[in-house]
Amino acid sequence: MTMINGFISDWLSHRRVLHHMLTDVTTEQLRMKPWEKGMSLSGLVLHITGSMGMFASTVQNGAYTPAVPPKPFSTIEELKANIEAETAQTESILRTITPEQLDQPIDFFGNVLRGSVLLQNAKDHEIHHKGQMFIYLRIAGIDKLPFFVSRG
């Protein structure tokens, strides 16, 4: 298994959980914030999914590439569909990344990191925020939550 394929497999084992975490979320809960200045539940989901796409595009392009703005949505079903599409798009970008791109230095806001390190940071970022999602969902009253990683 190539390095990028191993990364994608590990990343998807976490991303699949994000999809499962939204199983019992209602449209009404999407705007819930645990504190006044916090991100909404849907905002946190969009931050997680948009960030990985941004990191993948940055490694692919060799320079910071802003995240693509999320598609509008009104319901939890539309949000879930957007997440599915964004996950597929990000996986597609990741599958094009070459060993040379993984080894290239990239200036990321004053930090020069190899592409592989930037992707690892991206996965860690996603895991961090997924942990926050577990708390959000508990506050929202959702008791049935998946394990933090899914291997299949």
Automatic annotation (TrEMBL):
Keywords from the named record: Metal-binding
- Tell me which Gene3D superfamilies the record gives: dinb family like domain
What family, per the record?
Belongs to the DinB family.
Protein's name according to its UniProt entry: DinB family protein
The protein's matches in InterPro entries, at most eight in alphabetical order, are given as:
DinB (IPR007837), DinB/YfiT-like (IPR034660)
Q: Which Pfam family is an annotated match for this chain, by its short name? A: DinB
Q: Where are the transmembrane segments?
A: none
User: Looking at the keywords, is Methyltransferase present?
Assistant: no
Q: Which superkingdom does the taxonomy of this entry point to?
A: Bacteria
